[in-house]
Every structure is written in structure tokens, then in C-alpha cells.
What does this fold into?
Amino acid sequence: MAASPPVRDVPPAGALNAWRAAREAAGCPARLPPVRVKVEDAAGLVTAEPVWATRSSPPFDAAAMDGVAVRAAGTAGASETTPIRLRPDAYDMVDTGDPMPDGRDAVVMREHVRYCGKAAELRAAVPPYQHVRSIGEDVSAGELLLPAGHRLRATDVAAAAAAGATHLLVRRRPVVVILPTGEEVLPIGEPTGAGEITDTNSLMLATQAREAGCEARCLPVEPDDPAGLASAVSAAVSGCDLLIVVAGSSAGRGDYTARVVAELGMLAVHGVAIRPGHPVVLGVVGRTPVLGAPGYPVSAALAFDIFAGPLLAGLAGAAPRHRPRATARLGRELASPPGLDDWVRVRLALVGGTMMATPLPRGAGTLTSLVRADALLTVPAGLAGYQRGEQVEVELLRGIDEISRTIVAMGSHDLALDLAASALRAEDPLVTLATSSVGSLGGLQALRDGLCHIAGSHLLDPATGEYTLPHLDRIMPGAGLRVVRLAHREQGLIVAAGNPSGLTGIEDLTRPGMRYINRQRGAGTRVLLDHELGKRGISPGAVGGYAREEPTHLAVAAAVAAGRGDAGLGIMAAARAFGLDFVPVTREPYDLVVTASVMDSPLLAPLWALLRSARFQAAVTELGGYTTTEMGRCIR
Amino acid sequence: MAASPPVRDVPPAGALNAWRAAREAAGCPARLPPVRVKVEDAAGLVTAEPVWATRSSPPFDAAAMDGVAVRAAGTAGASETTPIRLRPDAYDMVDTGDPMPDGRDAVVMREHVRYCGKAAELRAAVPPYQHVRSIGEDVSAGELLLPAGHRLRATDVAAAAAAGATHLLVRRRPVVVILPTGEEVLPIGEPTGAGEITDTNSLMLATQAREAGCEARCLPVEPDDPAGLASAVSAAVSGCDLLIVVAGSSAGRGDYTARVVAELGMLAVHGVAIRPGHPVVLGVVGRTPVLGAPGYPVSAALAFDIFAGPLLAGLAGAAPRHRPRATARLGRELASPPGLDDWVRVRLALVGGTMMATPLPRGAGTLTSLVRADALLTVPAGLAGYQRGEQVEVELLRGIDEISRTIVAMGSHDLALDLAASALRAEDPLVTLATSSVGSLGGLQALRDGLCHIAGSHLLDPATGEYTLPHLDRIMPGAGLRVVRLAHREQGLIVAAGNPSGLTGIEDLTRPGMRYINRQRGAGTRVLLDHELGKRGISPGAVGGYAREEPTHLAVAAAVAAGRGDAGLGIMAAARAFGLDFVPVTREPYDLVVTASVMDSPLLAPLWALLRSARFQAAVTELGGYTTTEMGRCIR
It folds into this structure.
């Protein structure tokens, strides 16, 4: 096998070409072998030969109406004034679908026939073939019904059966095997210790393969050992049409996939100019294509889409499935590194008739960004990004109808809002409330930029001691905003269970060795901390850990629970979710800010109704630290 | 059970409401019971409760780069001019994904570290948490990951597993049972006699149900007997969540579904104001919803979409799947009966940058119109249709990408063109050639109206004896059209095998008792017949059966093969496809007419290449009656 050196850091199209060339050089089959299956079992598979009709449908001339079948020539001259009467041997009663009796060539509708004894009286002449469905009206024997390379749908298999097919020649399903690697990677269900992670990539890739119409199988996790990996790859390739080797999360010392593929077969590509997903490996071992997928879940998911998808469709001889596209407007500037195709997950929101796109967190490890994304936006390698307001084309991950009916809330993360999202959906599957945690200030700016319907805010104005309202006139002067109270929440220090350091309040944050967990700039809780420090004359620099930022209350609580921090300001419900202790500091209102036009739109009606329901208020109180007496009240 | 009289001929929304009310009155469950399944088995199912993260992902602070983990405070003051050296106990080598060692809070990238013996030299200070992925960066324990009522995709199950789920509470799959009726209906694979048809509706409906995420089962065909049908329905309802009773093709005497449902349970709706699909029955037997679907296949398919789809999604607590939509321009006026929602199957073609829609045959029996349709257009009950040029919204049945890459040919039906469609797809799954049989004149008019890329024509000009070319200047004067020769074809009389009547030519069509099968007005073969009759001084009225029209050569041959006609003018290949005899009359050219701009577009390049290939020319010659010496030649 001629081993040319692998191409590196090429654009996706070049990588696909290099992989194809390697497959051809290695003698990989271009198409899977055809198999003959019963037409009943063929749905979802791809035709391996054209389907020609072997009989006509309908297979005979048939009545297209209920009525009487006649010979058209025998009705000549019939009219309102000169009705004619047909004797019983000159007509037959027929129902829709009945074959036309011999010697009859037209049907008179039941409503237009009167009976005089056994004779049928007609008051109009009928032309030949009136209300007759001709043999072959739908399809004639010998006609092309479906081409080769067609993925069979419900109507296709039914039409094939109607045209005489009992069996169809189709491509067998591609078999995809997934081989996870990395000693720190454990199967789902096994408890993970420090430094260990659960193997979720195998499940994700196998599910993607099944969604693409393949059979998929996952092998046990292989440790990062070149010899062991080589023998696992050698054993796996003989039993599949595509082997996906998933890297451990470690992209450094443990990255043996490329080496093993080069040793056992042909390494075509090592590294593709995409983000996320750069460390992709493409090659061939034996006659089986091998895809080395990065360990970061978003990278792995995109590597499947970009590289496995087209290969698997090609093996079946079908066109790859494409996601529907839509256009959207960017509410913010989007910067992107040049030289890489940048795949950005975006949230969409239909605000005031315009579809707006907001980028979600871009890390390759943030799988939830893909779960929560409405669409993918690709910034091509040649662009450094997009300007604010630019119209972009996106690939939809959810239906546009569903997206158009989604309430989008951005701002401070709040557990009661999470609960509302779930309660709304449980009541009506058509209602979705999607939340993005961007901090209170981020939410108000997103509302200003038309990116969302609701800004969730608990932003203190230190000058007045008021929350949220004073900021509105600054950020969106004259916008006529409305404000609905969600709840009051207890804010305080989230500390380890049993409060082992015996913290009593903000003052104690200056203790030596303190590992404080802060919130990001623009977060209401960050503003609150600065305000509380300022009141006490404490400088931020005096708080150990002030520079460490987390994006949500729960992330702060998670860090404290893991022992990586001593304290962080946050809501009581977050402390409670992790079984941590809580040192109260203050009580603050959390409000929902909306524009006047959106306030009264049908889109938001289910949310307002929910907030006024006693059952929901009780559920929020259950979370701990919430007061719901003003829930749903319009305070401005 | 309170039995209010059924509503009749209501619009679909009213029918859905009446059915829902009947289900509520009968105590049908609104949702299917939840079941707990392993997260590995949950893909495609719908969550029955919200999924909250029970652990954070990543579960620990981790290095986000390959390099050395340090304490940020220990790097203060490092610069190009004042590098600092860290002793081995002051740093740890880490790879991406490794947990941060105790006491380290930042990572320096490998590329920025030099080693002096065992000491690591840094030339820049680093801030705390540089290149550190925080615990919970993706999702924090306690956070809402997925709401209830969410259909699980690959990324969802992976994210749920990463957030600690080993099992998920989901709705079980709905079970749909299909009960076909009618004594003329036979299972697939059984030979059909006169008046009998194959049961393709059961396969279609079961496949539609599976495509909607259900389990589906088909019962044996039940004859049209009220007592037998009643006991079959009674037995079936206990084992499913939806029973679909499919009428035989006969909508008259045999329509017992409504009566049986009314007797056994509650008949909510009998007849819906839609076309096709009017005779829909909606009711409840026991606690199981029953849908009576019409026997015409297009009606049955639409009845599933409109009525079963929303019910089944509701049972799973999920939003019904919606097809993507697009806008298209109508190239022709479209009339529609008032008072009915009219579901029109349309062919789409991207011609000169505009997406054009052409209605396909509208009969409820023409299942191939649904197979060949690119989209569905609904003309609402309140409208009498659309004007030519109007912009309409359609529901896509194929991907818009695929549609945009489809070559659309309209005009006279030709078997060589069918063969080309299949050969193009077999070579490249991305290339589709879609043909519509509308006759030669219809094709040229469609080209004029911008509805297609190619008009297939063999239209004789009786005045000059020339084909196609003289018509172009009449239909599209000054359009600068190009013409590519497909082939010459033998036209003649298609007669029964062995030519039992001993027909020798056009003259014999005036024989008494002749049952001629004609082609529709505008068909090239119709023009040819009229020309041949005229040459001989024969009036059309002298030909028995002149008024009987069929849309294609194959349909003519099918009628002759079935013994329902004695002769029809058509191509030799059609006679051969049915094993019939052929009496040659003339040889004619079949040409492809295109606009100059489309001629040289990349879209058509694969077709022109195919026409010039010797292998394809040989395959066409094989069909019989074709001469391919000029195939692919540009004759204008």
C-alpha cells in the first residue's frame, strides 16, 4: 500500500477528498453490497437498482364514483326534457373502485339517476369514460417508479407494492463500530473518581449512526496503549464498514490513533481546519475507513456530521441528509479565528417578526450548548467573523415552527425559571421556555438588542439600593419596558456542609487563605458582592479567589461542594441542591423585563398564567429561599 | 357513554376538536404511561419528566490545554526579560482533560515553557484559572438539562449521561394497529384477479406510524361485513393506542366503519372538509381512539398526517413533527373547490433562481403523485385557488438542497428519459432528473412559464412536416432556445400480442367496433395521429374510441394489454414493455428544449455527459425502436 504522508490542518473539503483518495487506493468498496428484502421490510433503506412498475395501478378500469355503469353511446340524446330509460341489462350498479363491467365505458353518479321500476332514468347524455379511473392512471407497467439511490419512505414502499413489487433490491445498512479509548474513560453507570470521566461519546456517536440509518455497536474502552489499541483496531475493522476511534479527553500524550492507523494502514488526514474538532484523524485500515474522533463531545458530534455522514450516505448510494436551513440576524458582533471553519452553536428567537441569532458558549466540551442550540452557524475560514446586524444562514437543529413558538429568556440564571420551563412543557408540549445564563446585565443588553423576549434580572443599583428598575432607563431609555416580578430570593454565602470554617458573613471573606468563588462581571450577584464589600470598606483585592469566576449559582455551589472553594455568594436554592450550608446576606427581587408589545403577545400568555398558579408558587417555595407573594405581579 | 351525533363535513381543526372531546368523554388517557429505560435505550423517545443534572460536567476542574499546571501567584513578575524558573515541585505536566493537581490553579501551554534541566522556565506571568476548565462549565448539578416532553436526540442522551443519568423516565412508544377492510383487497404478494387490488395502504400506514416513532402492527384483511368488522374492531382496540380501520376502495355499499364505531363506542366525526381524504371517520371504541381512513392511498396518507400525527405526538407528550416549509411561485393558475381544504401535491423546480411550483395529478388514487411530489400546498377552504405568479407557502417532502439540485423535465413521456433518470442517480446520488408527463405541448408551455429546465417534445408541425422547431418560435418567440436531440423513435400501432385483428396501419382504425386508445390533447402522439388521419382523409369521428384518452405511451399499452382496447398509437418500446405487437407507422425525433442560460449551467452537465456515453446509448437501443445516432447532438 503506497503510504503518502498525511495531509494536516486542511479545510474539511480537502480532508474529505484526501480520505476518499486513500479509500480508493486501499480498494475500499464505494457502495455496500445489495440485498433483496421484502417490500414490507424496505422502508428507510436505499434502493440499489431502479424500481420499474411491473404492473399497472389501478390494475383495471374502475368506477371513480358510486352510481351506475353505462355505455356512453346508449345515453345519447338524454336531457331534462327527453329523459331516457335504461333497462336492467343496459346498466350495472357500481361503487367507487369497482371494476367497470364489460361493455360499459362511463359512470353516472348515483345522485343523477332515478329509478322507474327496474329501469334507470337519465336526464343527461354522458361522454365516454366519464367517472372512469383508467387502468394505469397512477402508474403503468414499464414506467420508472423510483431511481436507484432513493431512500424509501412510506409512500414509496406502498407505491412499489401497488406497481407489483414484492421484494426490492436495496443496500444493506452500514455497520459502524465505535472504539472508545483512554484509561480515564469509564462506561456509563460506573462511578467516576477524581480525574475520571464517563464515556458518553460512544453513546452519542452510536445514536448519530443509528439516526443516519446504520447499525452501530460500541466496543469496551481501550486504554491509551499503542500495542493494545493496534490489536483492538485490527480486530474491529473486519466487522464493520466504518470504525470510529474516540480519543480520550486527553489530546496530548494519549493521542495514539493517528500513529496506529499509520502503522496498520494508511493515515490520510491528521488535523482538520475546523473549530471545534481540529484533531480529527482520517485513514484506512485493511479495506475499512477509520475516523479518529476528538474526545471533546462537541468536536466528536461535529466530526461525525462532517466526515462520517457523507461517507455512510455514499456507501448506501444515497444523498447525505441535509438539515433545513434558515436565515437569521446576528444581534451582536461575532468574532472568529481566521484559517478555520468555525462551527458556532446559536440560539434563535423570533422577536418582533425577526429571527435573531445569539451564539452559545463555544467550548468544545460544552455539550449542553449543542443540546440547547437551535441551529449551527458556520463562519468560513476566510472570514474573521460577522458584524452586528448581519444576515447569516444557519442549519436548523430544531424545527422552525417550534423555534418560532419558543419563549427565549436571557439573563441571570434562576432555578424558579428552570422550574417554569419544565412546568410549561409538561402542560403543553407546544410551549417551550428556553433560558440562557448570561448574567443580569447581559440579559438586559440582549433585550435591548432584540435577541430575546425576556430579560431575567436582579441587578442592584448601588446608588439607590433599588433593583433592576434604575438600570432600565440607562440601558433602554424610553423603551416603555414592562417588569413582572418572579420572586424574592435569599442571597448568601454558599459554604461547605456544616460550615467548617465557621463563616458568619461578608466580613469573613478577607480571612487569609480564603478561596472565594466569584461570579462573572455583569452578574447581579457580582454587583451585589461589590456593593456589600464597598459598604464594609473592603477592597476586592482583599478577598482571596475574587478573580475566579463561575457563570451560575449552581456552578459556584458545585465548586464549593467539590472542595475547590470555601465560599461563594449565591442563592439558597443552589446551596440546598448540593446539600451545602448557607449564610444569609440579603433578600433580593428577581424580575422579568419585557417590551410592552411582547408583554401582551399570545406567546407569553402561558408563562403569565403559570406564575399566577398556586401550584407553581408552592413548587418554587419548595426549592428553598424563595418568597413568591409577588410572583406574576406587574410592577411596572 | 353520552352519544352526541357525529359532526359531518367539518374543517380539519373542528374535526380534531370533536375527536379530542370524544376521547375525553370516553376517558381515553391523555398521555401514555411513563417507563424507565436505560439512557442507552432512550434515543428517539420522549421524556416523561424533566431531566435535572445530578452531577456536574466536567466533574472536576481540568486542564484545558496541554502544558504545565502551576499556581498563578507563583508566576508573578515573569516576563521576557525576567523569566522565572519553577522547580519540579512547583509544577505538574498536564494534558488537556487532566484534573488540576492540588494547589495548582492555572495552566501554561506547552509551547510557552522551556526546560532548564528539571526546572520549567516561564517568560510571562499567568492569571489564576488560565486554561482551566471549571467543574460544571458544561452543566452544574441541580440545573435543568431537558424539560419533559422532549424527544431525545444523540446529543441529549449523551448530555444526560454526562450529567449523571443512567436511566430516564420516558413515554413508551405508542402502539398503532391497522385493520384493512374490503373483500376485494388482497395482501401484498397474492396475485390479484379482475376487480381485486393489493393492500398497500396497511404497509404505508404502518410505515408512517413507525416513522412517527410508534410500534405498528397490521391485521389480516377484514371483509365488508358489519358483524365481522365489529368483532375485529372490538378485539383490536384493547391492544393498541390507536386503531386505524382502512376502508376498501369502495366508498359506497361497503363503508361500514362509521356504523361499527357508532355501535361499539362513540362516532365523533364522519366526513372532513378536505380533499383528498373527505370520508374520514374519527371516534372512540372502549378507551381507544379509532381513525377510519379512506381507501384511496393519497387520502389515507394525508388522513394519517392530519389526524393520527397530532394524536400520537400528544400521547407521547411531544410536539408533533412539522415538515420544513418554503415559499414557491405558481407558474400557472390553480383552481380549487371552495369549502374544502385542498391538499395539492406539487413539483418544485429552481429555475433561474426562482423556486417554481407545478401541481401534480390531483386524484386521490394517484399515489405516485405523492411519491413524486416535492411538497404539499394547501389551498384553504376559503380560497377558490391562486393566481398565476402568486407566491405560496408549501410543506417540503424532500430537502430543499436536494430539490435545488434536481433537473426538472416536463413534456412527453419517454422511456429513454426514464432510463436517463435512473442512470444519473446510480452514478451520483446527488443528481436527480425528475420527469412529468404533460405531453409535448404541455412541456413547451411549462418551459415558457419557467416551470422546468427541460421540455421533452416530439411535436409535429403538420404544415412543414418538421418536429418541435417550428413550434418554438410560436410558443416562445425570441427566447433563444437551444435544442438537444435525445433520439429517434419508432411510432406505430400498439396491438395485442400476435396482432389478432390483423391491423396493418392507420387505415384499419376505421373498422367497425374498433376500440382505439387515444392520447390527450397536446400530446405529440395525438398530433401525429391527427396528421396521419388527415393525410388519409379520415375524420376523427370515424375512429371508434377516439375520445378515450390516456396520458402516456405505457398507459395506452397497459389498456391494450388488459384487453380494454384494440390499438393505440405509441412507441415501440412501450409495446415491448408489455409483450405486445407493434405495427410501425413512422419514425420521429424526440428532442430536449432548454433555454440558453440553463443549457450551459452545471446543473445539466451530467445529463449532457450521459447522453454522449456509448454505454447509455446502447442501453437505450436495447429498449427497442430507438435510434441513438444523434443522441446528445445540439441541433439548435
Remarks:
- The radius of gyration of chain A is 34 Å.
- Chain A has a mean pLDDT of 91.
